[in-house]
Amino acid sequence: MYGTEQVISGTIIAGPELDPIEGYICVKNGIITEIGEEHTYSANIIAPCFVNAHTHLGDSVCKDPLMGTVSGFRIQKDLDSLVKPPDGLKHRILRETSYKTLIQYIRKSLLDIIETGTCAFADFREGGVVGLAALNKALEGLDLHSLIFGRPTEPQLPPGVVLAEIKRVLLHSDGLGISGANDLDMELLQEITTCTRVQKKLFAIHAGEKNRSDIEKALSLEPDLLIHLTHATKKDLEEVAQTGAPVVVCPRSNFVTGSGMAPIAEMLGAGIRVAAGTDNVMLNSVNMFAEMEFMSKVFSIEDRQVFKICTLNGSFVMGPDSTGSIEKGNKANLMILNGSSNNLAGIKDPISGITKRARPDDILAVLHS
Fold it and tell me: Counting C-beta atoms within 10 Å of the first and last residue's C-beta, which end of the chain has fewer, N or C?
C-alpha cells in the first residue's frame, strides 16, 4: 500500500548475483528502502518476480490444439501449420474469434501471469491495430509492465498496403514483432525496419526456430531483439553477440513443436544477453515456474543462471524499470514464497529449490511496483 511502510522477513534472494541472505526488507511507495541482515525465524523466501519476455497472448482462445498423430494421420504436421501467417492454425482461429471473446481470454492469461509471479511481459500481438487494442483493453486496471510488439494483419498484401498498416501499428505499439525473415520479401522487410527506426520504435523478429535459413537475413535487419535461435550455429552466435541484441529463448515451446533445443549454454558463453518466455499460450501456459523447471532439468546450466534468465535478465528486453535485483533503491517487484510449504519444506539451497521445484501454489504474496 502506498504511503505505508511494509516490512517483510525471510530468506532474501538479494542483489544482482542472487545471494541468499537472512533478514528483512522495508518497502515504501513501491521502493525498497532498506535491507537488513538478521536471524528472523521466518520460512519466507523473498525473490525477484519473473519477466516473461516472449508471449503470444492472442492464442489464449485456443489452448488444446490437436498435436501429434491420430490413427496414422499427422494433425499438425509442422511448425508452419501451427503458427505461420497468414493461414497457420492460430491465425485461422484468430480470424474466427470475436473482439469481445479475444479480450476476455487475453484478460484471463494476464491474470494468470500475475498469479504465477510475473511482473512484466513482452507480447507479439497479431491482428494489426485491432489486435493491439484488444490487448490494451484486456490490460486495463492490471498492475503489469508490458512491451507490446505489433505486426501487419495480412503481410501477403501489396507492399504499399502493408507499409500503410505498419505505420498505423507503430502509432499504437512499442514496436514491431515479425514472424520471421522468410515470411516477407526482404525489400519490404527493409522498408518496414526503416519505418520502425523513423518512429523510434523497437524491431523484434523470430529467427532460427524451424531451421537456420532466416538467421542471416534477420541479422541484416539489425534487430533490437531476437526470438528463439534454436538452430543457431557457433558462427551465428558470435555474430549475434557482436550486435549486442538480446535473445529470448522459449524451451517448452520449442520442445512441443519439435523445433529442437536452443543452445543456451553456448549463447551465454558467447556473451549473448539471454532472457526467457513461454511463447504461444495455445502450446504452453504463461507459468514461468514451469519454464524455469524445464530449463533447469533439460539444459546443462547452473540453477542460479537459469533463475537469472527467468527474472533479472528480463531487463535486457523490457528495460531497467521492468524488474530489478533486490537492492536498496530498486523497485519492489517481489514474490514471497512459503518456504515451509509441503513442496518447499526441507530445501537447503533456496536458489536450486525454487528453480527446480517451486510452483505457483507456493506463492504467499506478489508485490508489483
Answer: N
